[in-house]
Write a structure and sequence with these properties.
229 residues; six-stranded mixed β-sheet; alpha+beta
């Protein structure tokens, strides 16, 4: 912290809960004004969801209290992909229903071409894309594209996929890979805490030396030069 940055306003975009990781958009200073625009835009977000078949928990995560165990030997990648296709079809219908435009109009066609056809922020969470990334039972990974979601909702989706497959499943990890135009390859790298402290120490020593130099170079006003009014 130095004299140039005594007070900085920092805002957070679409939030991540404490059990999730990945892309988090932050507005600094004037950038906070752009966060509202980001909220108003109908942008999708991408996630990777790691899951484990065979267990169900009270909060849909692998760290929750296990409430049920089940078999999963009958689950194949093909069966999993069929369930994802069913879910995506149901969500595509919801996407059209909440878009508030006539699907047979020119406006709807042009919005679809531009990729901006979507619901308002008050709609239910909608999954616009689902794909199996890896399948090594009991573990699996999904790639999900969605709107208006929460991370807890995505964990529940993993739970429901397990039920559709006549088994159970819990989410082991939620990782956001894209938020609108912001993606992992365009973000800032993670800086370990010890390196951050080192940079902070260097900064504090630098600004301390500047203050000391300024005090030494400033003229000392004598009492004889002081005029009382």
């Amino acid at each position: 912290r130095g004299p140039e940055f005594r007070r900085i306003k920092v805002g957070v975009g679409h939030r991540l809960d404490a059990s999730s990781s990945g892309v988090l958009v932050i507005g600094v200073g004037r950038g906070n004004k752009l966060l509202n625009d980001l909220y108003q835009m109908c942008v999708t977000r991408d996630y990777t969801l790691d899951g484990e078949f065979g267990i169900a928990t009270d909060d849909f995560s692998s760290t929750g209290k296990i409430v049920e165990r089940s078999t999963y030997d009958h689950i194949t990648r093909d069966k999993l992909e069929k369930v994802l296709a069913m879910l995506q079809g149901a969500n595509q219908k919801a996407l059209l229903m909440y878009s508030n435009v006539d699907m047979h109009s020119q406006e709807a066609y042009e919005m679809a071409v531009r990729g901006v056809l979507g619901p308002d922020r008050k709609s239910m969470p909608i999954l616009t894309g689902l794909r199996v990334k890896s399948f090594q039972p009991p573990h699996f990974t999904l790639e999900v594209q969605c709107l208006n979601e929460t991370q807890q909702y995505l964990r529940k989706v993993v739970h429901e996929i397990g039920l559709e497959l006549h088994s159970t499943a819990a989410c082991t990890a939620v990782h956001r890979t894209r938020d609108g135009t912001f993606a992992l390859n365009t973000g800032l790298d993670y800086v370990p805490l010890d390196r951050l402290r080192c940079r902070t120490d260097h900064s504090e020593r630098y600004h301390a030396s500047k203050r000391q130099s300024a005090q030494m170079s400033s003229p000392v006003e004598s009492s004889e030069d002081t005029v009382a009014h």
